[in-house]
Amino acid sequence: MRLILPLPGNEIFARHLAESGGWELGAIETRRFPDGETYVRILSNIANRPVDLVCTLAPPDDGFLRLVFAADAARSLGAREVTLVAPYLAYMRQDRRFLPGEAVTSKTFARLVSSTFDRLVTVDPHLHRYAALSALYTIPTETLHAAPLLADWIAAEVQKPLIIGPDEESEQWVSAIAARIGAPHAVLSKTRHGDRSVDVELPDLSQWSGLRPVLVDDIASSGDTLFEAACKLPLQGFARPICAVIHGLFAEDSYQRLLAVADRIVSSDSVLHASNAIRLAPLIAAAISAARNVPRDIVRHRRPAEPLDEVERAGIDSFPASDPPPWTSGVSRTRTPVPRQGKGDSAT
Ligand code: R5P
């Protein structure tokens, strides 16, 4: 049976995923050593099983090394296949060198993930200059789309909606969502001057006066895009908008700022947040189940489970490292080593 393993902060999503697929929910123990290094221990039996590590990548940096350690541990303990389930995939927006000398982090991050996992499952990655994840990632990837779920939420919750995209890039979302629920849509025009500086201009929307504006975007990060758009709509006589996003990152105080100018804010649960209203686990579970029939030869980076080395055979008696390990003739300064009975050893 598949094993779903949550990284810290992803326990709720992982439980929903395990429930949706009828799979086992496992556990990882992790903590920081006093020197800041990371300890990882997989508490579930994973030998010969497909393992899904659930870790949304927002914010990405702090937990990334821990994720790599967990994936590598899973593989070395004999997992049949190690998949990264990242409902939000980070580092998709710096997809070119906008200024001389910049790191193109999309490519570097993709290389790191591709060398760590056998497969990646994610939802609506920010594909702007790349048409598909396969242009960046060298492992099999599954790109899922939450727009239909957003559309269904709007249809159920909002009377007479006008679907509005805050920038030209969002045309793809808003047209698909509007078409699915038979609502009109409009697209605004955005100019970004910097990380926290955005201008949004509205076309003449008077033909839709009386409709309920619903701003739809893939990501709310600084929240400035939605904030600027939400501030401008009342200038054309509209009510405060509903904001619906797939990935609610909501950095710093952006959520509170947006709440002041929006009627309601909703997001999918790709990133755990108070605005979560749309569950993605059933979508991801269905995709994982469907992928069961994928031929095994797509699985990369396979290697057999590593045999126990002498440190593992010695077990906890060799810890901490400042104690002489029991297979040496040294004497522990802090405790007497417990004699171990093992292959080739004799109890003394
Ligand atoms: C831009 O291309 C995206 O679709 C979003 O509009 C953007 O990432 C939102 O960023 P922020 O919340 O920082 O304005």
Kindly describe this structure:
With 348 residues, the protein is α/β, with parallel strands linked by helices. The chain folds into two domains: 1-146 and 280-348, Rossmann fold (3-Layer(aba) Sandwich); 147-278, Rossmann fold (3-Layer(aba) Sandwich), CATH 3.40.50. Helices cover 26% and strands 23% of the residues. The protein has helices at residues 11-21, 61-76, 105-114, 147-157, 171-181, 224-232, 254-259, 281-290, 310-314; strands at 3-6, 24-25, 28-32, 38-42, 50-54, 81-86, 119-123, 141-144, 161-165, 185-187, 189-194, 197-201, 212-220, 242-248, 264-268, 276-278. The strands form four sheets. It has a six-stranded parallel beta sheet with strand order 2-1-5-6-7-8, sandwiched between helices. A six-stranded parallel beta sheet has the order 10-9-13-14-15-16, sandwiched between helices. It has a two-stranded antiparallel ribbon with strand order 3-4. Strand 3 and strand 4 form a beta hairpin. Helix 1 (11-21) crosses helix 8 (281-290) and helix 4 packs across helix 5. It is elongated, with a radius of gyration of 25 Å. It starts with a strand and ends in a 34-residue tail after the last helix. Residues 294-303, 316-325 and 331-348 have low confidence and may be disordered. Bound molecules: ribose-5-phosphate.
